[in-house]
Each structure stands twice: as structure tokens, then as C-alpha cells.
Amino acid sequence: MSTTVYERVRSAILDGTLSPGQLVSENQLAGEYGASRTPVREALHRLEAEMLIERVGRTVRVRTTSPEEILDIYEVRITLEGAAARGAALRATELDRARLRAASASMRAAGNDPAERAATNRVFHETLWNASHSPTLVDLLQRLNVHLIRYPSTTLEDDERWHTVLVEHDAMIEAIESRDAARAQSLAESHMTGAREVRLEMMTRRVAATGAGGADNN
After folding, report:
1. Which of 156, 165, 166, 163 is nearest to 217 (CA)?
2. What is the Rg, in whole angstroms, of the alpha carbon atoms belonging to the chain?
3. I need a surface site. Which of 35, 42, 45, 211 has the fewest CB within 10 A?
């Protein structure tokens, strides 16, 4: 039951049903999910460890993420994505490479819907992470990505950025298939640096338009 409650609350946070800053309580969640307070309490402890909720005094709320923290996440992800691509070039199996090609094909088949683009892009990157055969890298990248997918906007809503991403992914696959670890790492780092720069530009435009800070993400 604790796992079920945890998964349901986590999904509610990730899809925005529970919004950043929203207060939550054990009694409220227990009533909503038809569970006792013990599995709810265990779920909240797990979510706090994942930095999805935070305790402020005696209250518990969905954690907010600042633009500065989002950019910091990108900085770390640049390094980790590079390491994953390098690992994929060194250790990917033929099945891994086939899955990468299939993920790339799915991206090219995606339409103009930003959410569809973001979803296929996530599958590509998750496939790349798994191709590294490094459980530690996969775990760290998954934890980082959680804080990005909470926000509805995506850097892929721009057509120019989308086509750039497709080209860069193809180059990464080529480097991985040729087992050029240094090139795969460099391409992945450059790819994520580009994503960070687009995100920075998006946040700057948003601040200029609203006069307030905030974080949206893919």
C-alpha cells in the first residue's frame, strides 16, 4: 500500500495535479486515497528524500524550483549526459543501438505537438542512458529529470530547436555506433549545453513578459 500511495502522490506532483507550493497533509491524502496514515507518512518521507516535497515548520508542501536551480540541474546534466554517451559508445550492445535508432525514428514521426516532442525526446535520452550500462548514471539522470518534467513548457516547442535536436541525436548515434567515446561525450555535452541556453532564453523572455521569475521545464 505504501508503494501505491507513493506512486500516486508522485504522479500527481509530476503531472501538476499537486502544484508547486501546494500544501498537503497526511489526513488529506489518506482520505483521498483511502489509505491509513502510515503508508501516507512513508510515501511523504520518500518524496521528501527525492526533493519533491518539503517541510516548512509543521506544514508539508510541494517543493518549488527556482530558475537558478533549473539552470544548475542543466549544468550537472551536461556532465552526466556526456558520461552516459561515452559509456554507450564503449558498452552499447547491438540491441541498445537498435533501440536508439528506433527512438530517433519515433522522434522524427512526432508531430508539432510540444508534449509529444518532449515525450519522444525523453524516451531517446532514457534509451541512451540505459545503453551506458551504468546503473549509477541512470539513477542520477532519472532523479535530475524528475525536476524538469514537472513543468509544462518545453525547449522543443520551437521548430528550429526541434530540428537541431534531431540532427544532434543522429550524430550521437553515429558516434556510439562507431564506438568513438570521446566524440559521443563531446556531442552529448554540446547537445545539453544547447538545451540549457534555450531554457535560459525562455526564462528570460518569461521574466520580461510577466515581470516575475519562475521556472517552466520539459
Report:
1. 156
2. 19
3. 211
Report the alpha-carbon distance of residue 184 to residue 68 in Å, rounded. Answer: 28
Q: Does pLDDT of 124 surpass 90? A: yes
Alpha carbon of residue 73 to chain centroid: 10
pLDDT at 210: 63
